[in-house]
Amino acid sequence: MDLFRAHVLVCGGTGCTSSGSAELIRRFEEQLELNGLEKEIKVVRTGCFGLCEAGPVVIVYPEGTFYSRVKPDDVNEIVAEHLIKGRQVQRLVYSAEKSQVATSLNQMQFYEKQKRIALRNCGVIDPENIDEYIAFDGYQALGKALTEMSREEVIDTVKKSGLRGRGGGGFPTGLKWEFAFKSAADQKFVCCNADEGDPGAFMDRSVLEGDPHAVLEAMAIAGYAIGASEGWIYVRAEYPIAVKRLYIAIEQAREYNLLGKGIFGTDFNFDINIRLGAGAFVCGEETALMTSIEGKRGEPRPRPPFPAVKGLFESPTILNNVETFANIPQILINGWEWFASMGTERSKGTKVFALGGKINNTGLVEIPMGTPLRDIIFDIGGGIPGGKAFKAVQTGGPSGGCIPSSLIDTPIEYDSLIAIGSMMGSGGMIVMDEDNCMVDIARFFLDFTVDESCGKCVPCRIGTRRMLEILERIVDGKGEEEDIPKLESLAKTIKATALCGLGQTAPNPVLSTLRYFRDEYEAHIKEKRCPAGHCQALLQYFITDKCVGCTKCARICPVGAITGKVKEHHVIDQAKCIKCGQCVENCRFNAIIKK
Amino acid sequence: MKTLEELKAIRDRARDSVDLRRDNAGTRIVVGMATCGIAAGARPVMLAFVEEIARRGLKDVTVSQTGCIGMCRLEPMVEVYAPDKEKVTYVKLNPDMVGRIVAEHIVNGNIVSDYTIGAAE
Ligand SMILES: Cc1cc2nc3c(=O)[nH]c(=O)nc-3n(C[C@H](O)[C@H](O)[C@H](O)COP(=O)(O)O)c2cc1C
User: Is 0.95 exceeded by the ipTM?
Assistant: First the structure.
C-alpha cells in the first residue's frame, strides 16, 4: 500500500464543481507530479463540506487546514508553501479562522453547533471508493442486521430510535416498516425518494454525492426488515453527479457482494435499480413517484390503500427519503438509545438544512433537533449580510410557511414548526431580510405550485390559480378590500379537498404570511404601498434635497420623466415614470430614493 | 462478502489509508520544512518518520510540517507534541536517527536525550 503523508481533499459537490473544483484537482495532480510528490500526497475528491458559500473548498490533512475560494492559480502556492514547506497559505485560510494553529473542521464556528450524522462522511471520504466508506464502518450495520438480528429486531430498533421521515411528513420510520413487514406478499419493494423538488433544497443531493453507499446500505437493511429483494431509487436527472456516483456505488457494492445474492453468506438477496425523474415537483409525492417508476405519467392517486399495503407494481412498498435512510446504518451500529438521546421528546436525532437567501454562510448544515432557529441563522449561518435586519425565515418550501423574527427562538422540531404555521419540510431554509416583501414571497411560492400542479384534481388545478391571480393583483397595486377573505376561503377549501399533499399544503405560504404579516397585505391593498419597498408597481421614485442639478438623470431617463434646470433641484413626473431605476443607479449624489 | 470478518479485514486495511483524516488526539510530529530545513535534508527525515510509523502501524500519530522554527543551523529539526506533555525538540536529524526516536519516544515515552536541542547546545 502506498504511504501518504498528507491528503488534499477537494470538494466535488455540485456547488464546488460548478465553481471549478475539477480544475483544482487536475492542477493539484499536475503540480504534485511536477514536484515528485505524487507518492507522498494524495488528492481526494469528496462530497459537499457544507460551507458552499466559501467554495471551492480544499482541506489539507493531517493539519485539517480549511482553504476557501481556491482558484486554479492558487494551487501552485498551496503546493509550494503548504505541501513542500509546511507553511499554511494564510490568505486562503477560511476567513473566520485566521489563527496560526492548525484548525480542524470541528473547531470552526460554522461546524461547532452542528452534529453530523446523515452528513458524517460528506467531505471526509471519497464517494467513488467503497473501501473508504468501509473504513468509516460502512456496511457494518448491514452485516450486523443480517447475521445477528432478526427482522423484528431491526424494525424494533428503528421504532425505538424515534426516527421520523425526513422527506417532509415526519411519519415514524419504524412504524412504516412494520406495516410493510406485516403485509404478506411474495414481492415487496423498498423505494428511495431522491426527487428533492423544493426550491433551494439540496440536502439529499449532497448525501448522494458525498456518501452514496450509506443510502444503499440502508435500503438493503430495509429490504431485509420488510422482506423485499428489490430496491428503487428515484432521483432527478438534474443531479448528474449524484446519479453517476450512485451507479458507481451500486457497481462496487455488487462486486463486493454487498448487493446481489446471498449477502453475508445468508439467504438474503437484494439489488437496487435507479429511475431518473424528469424534475416534476409532484413526482416527489409518494404515490405519484411510484406511478412514475412504473413508467406511467407521474400523477398521485388517493390513499388508502397505502403503499405499505399496495405500492409499487401493486406490491407492499416502503418509501423513504434519502436523509431518512442515511441515518439508519448509524442507528443500528450505535443503538437506538444513542439516537434517541439526541433531539427532543418527539423529534429525535438531527436534521439537515440547506441554508439560503439573505444569509452569510449559504450552505448545508446538520443540527440536533430542538436547536433554536436563532442559533442556525446567527451562529452557524453567520447572520444577515450588509447589516440588514432579519425579517423571517421560510421552511418547508412550497408546503411550508414563513416564521417571523418574533418567533426566532422556536426550537426546530416537527410539532413546534407546525404549531406556528410552518413545517419541517425536507429542509429548505430561506432567510429573508427587511427588503423582502412577504406578499411577494407568498406569490412566488404560489406561482411555483400553480406551475407544478399536475392538474388531476380541480381544487389544486383551478383553486391555486385563482389564489395566484389575487396575489398578483395585490402586488400590482390593484388589490381590493375583499381579497384577504377571498384568499382565506379559497385556502380553506383547497386544503380540505385537494387530492394529494401538493394541493393540500399549497395555501400554507399564503396563510402563514397572512397570519404574521397581515399588515403588509393591508398596506398593499388599502394604501397601495409596499412596506419593504420591493413591489415595483407600488414604488415611487423621488429626488431629495441632495440633488445638485447635474442633469445626468434627466438625460438618462428613457421616458423623459425627469425635468429641471441646470444647478436646480430636479423632479420626477410620477405619471410618466416607468420605475426602471436607471436614475437611481446613475445618480452620483445618492439623491434619488424609492419608497 | 460472505462474513463479517471479511468486511472487518477490508475495513482495517482501508483504515490505514484514511487515518490521516480522523480527528486526532494523539501525538503530532512536526518537521521543520522551510528552505533551511529542506536544504539540510528534512525531506528524507520526514519520509522516514512516515514510513516508520506506518511500519509499526501506530494509530493516532501524525506527521506534519511547519515552516522555519528559527534556528536554521540546527536543522533538520523536529518537534514532538504528545498529549499533556511538554514539547520536545530534536535537532540535526538524519533518517538513521528516526527509528530510535519512534521506538523510544513515540512508542515508549522515553525522550531520546542525545538528540534533543539541550544536548546540542
Ligand atoms: C408535492 C409533494 C412533493 C414531495 N416531494 C418530496 C421530495 O422531493 N422528497 C421526499 O423525500 N419527499 C417528498 N414528499 C414526501 C413524500 O410523499 C413522502 O412522504 C416521503 O418521501 C416519505 O419518506 P420519509 O418518511 O422518509 O420522509 C413530497 C410530498 C408531496 C405532497
Answer: no
